Amino acid sequence: MADSLSRQLEHVDISSIIQEFQEFFNMYYKKEIEKLVSVYPKNKSLNIDYQILERFNSELADKLINEPDLVIYSAKNALIEMNYTLLPNIKFKPHVRFYNLPKSDLLIENISSQHINKLISVKGVVTKRAEVKHKVHVATYQCAFCGEKTKIVISPETEPPSMCPSCKRKGGMVLLEDESEFVDIQRAEVQELLERLKGGTPPARLELWLEDDLVNSIIPGDTLEMIGILRLRQPYVPRGRKKVSFVYTRYLDILHVTKQKKEFEEIVITDDDKKEILNLSKSQNLYERMVKSIAPAIYGHHEIKEGILLQLFGGTPDKMLPSGGRIRDDIHILLIGDPGAAKSRMLQYVTALAPKSVYVSGKSVTGVGLTASAERDELADGGWTLKAGALVLSSGGIAAIDEFDKIDQEERASLHEAMESGQISIAKAGIVATMKSKTSILAAANPKFGRFDPERPLADQFNIPSTLLSRFDLIYPMIDVPDEEKDSNIADTILRTHQEAGKGVITPKDSKVIDEDVIPNDLMKKYIAYARQHVKPTLSEDAMDKIKSYYLKMREMGKQYSRVAITARQIEGLIRLTEASAKVRLASVAEADDAERAIKLVDWMMRKLAMDKEVGSFDIDTITSGRSRSQFEKFSSIIEIVKELQKNYDKVEIKRVIKEAEENYGISPQEANRIIQQLITKGDLYKPEHGIVKLVGED
Fold first, then answer.
1. CA dihedral 60, 65, 66, 68 (to 10 degrees)
2. Global pTM value
């Protein structure tokens, strides 16, 4: 920068620009400058609103865009020459940073050679951040022959001097590090915002350089508006190689960064869109239309689609506990079903519909791919860099995770914090950081043995830890049961979809498959974005009474049968679903009907998964541990029988255990045999020989 700037200064008189800026500072920024001087060097930057500069002098504002190095250099000198009094021995070297440039739809992928050395504004999400390094800002060289010292301002184009400017001898210039000036520098990488991507294109990436007081001001996962100068640098050529590359790499020399707090702000909603959204919200059959619009090409699964609809809208954000903790508003849903039950299709459709989303498959995902990590990377020249994973990049949207049961246990464990608190903590290689991952998770998994066994409890067939299961607000089993009418409808839907897709006709108006009430994807996306931006419903007294009554009723039901039918964690899930139901209507208050809709969905899940059929009561342990209380008691009874028999017999026969279980505990021979086999599989019992069992560790 310094070399190119010095060449410009040879032909340009900047005194007039300096004078303009001094007048501008005195007119608009006198208080800000006085405050900066009072805290310098703790704070080194004066932030200038570009719109104010443009009102003051539009020509100067235009010059800033096209010749940023010259104008920023002049602004710095104008500020220094105003001669403010500082503490002794402090040299005033402020930064002048401009923000609030004219609104631009410039995508990272559209940055081209016409933007080189221009001031540009782009938006993106941080994917990597390297550790801080220290760059020579002003180098002091000394000639080994005559001892003359030379100071050089360093820029990306600067090369070490080969000849002494005093004695004109070559090869004797030595860098004096102790007398040189250094500045902190940090490299980072951003990628295109997920909501700006179209057509499944891979996100474009851009390298950032941050200097001095900007270092460590961003972390992976941050959504930023970045203002900087696009620069080029020649790739490093090892010494001894004569070939010079004429292909340059680019980076954005950051002048100013602003963190974006609103999600989905890149979804453009016009006045006409807003009118259409508000009209739609007043429809009599709004919920019916909304549910039909979730994966309309997939037949049935009404409860699942209704749950996913509420997940897309989410609960009321930004609620804080009195202690300062954040209350989760993201709704997590798990689909567990037989092969061919359209789980993946459901996830892919939601990914296409959600304004901000990412789709990953558990077979190929790693802990870094899902959450975040600190690892060595070329961005840090072999040092440590922070990397953001899918949950961080989709913060504020939905992460669709297919093959959830295939994720390694160690990597799955990193999801606990992300799902509950909406953040990911990293402590590795001396880097301690917390990244935001406020993401709703829609996961799909297969049963433990590939397909559900109708003879066994459904929850016993989940190959997912109970601690992780408990963090899902809704768990939907998708069971493939032969049914002539249903199978006929599914076949008709698939056949007609393929027939119409082949003709190129798949619009709600003309299609025989998709109902005409289905809302177009583009309008649905804008409706969801509008609701999440502007609607923050609170619970009415009636809604709270409904939730409380359901909770107390379930607790009382469990008490009668010595079961835990529901826990306080389910109350929070009901609240989130109730608030989401109100957001569908764009309502500021969640009413009793919203609470009933939430209760209906939770009750449907409980009847499918948490019903202890032996006593006719709900038992939440069925979901969290895979066994109901009555089953747990039977397992304990079999273990107790084996333990007692082992005291009196060297060899405990399986048929004797089965007989004892039937006579003393009322367990049928078939069920007793099944429990024994499960205990052997789990490792609680073992078979020393055919027909004989023993307790593990009780020899």
1. 90
2. 0.70
